[in-house]
Amino acid sequence: MFDPTLGVAIIAMGGLGAFFATFLALADKKLRVEEDPLVEAVMNVLPQTNCGACGYAGCQQLAEQIASGKAAVNA
Questions:
Q1: Could you give the dihedral angle defined by the CA atoms of residues 20, 24, 30 and 34, in that order, rounded to the nearest 10 degrees?
Q2: Could you give the residue ranges of the DSSP H alpha helices within the chain?
């Protein structure tokens, strides 16, 4: 009724899943890039249309430039 190869396959797939889940969790902690909270605050004020009318490719680039002081607040 129960095929032993099925049990081995289930254990192997479970082990692989646990291994890769652990690997991804550790990689997330090690490789995480922290963003400046000021950029997030500026992004919340911008219209998020990415129209390019300010001279930048999108709202994210404008927010980064404003936060670093390289662009005027009224850009």
A1: 180
A2: 4-31, 37-45, 59-68
Identity at 70, one-letter amino acid code: K
pLDDT tens-digit profile of 9-55? 999 999 999 999 999 999 999 999 998 999 999 999 999 999 999 99
**Quick one: tokens of 44?**
């919340």
Cα angle value 8/12/16 (rounded, 5°):
175
With beta carbons less than 8 A apart as the criterion, state whether 42 and 66 touch.
yes
Question: Considering the entire predicted model, what is its pTM?
Answer: 0.60
Give the Cα separation of 42 and 52 in Å (integer).
16
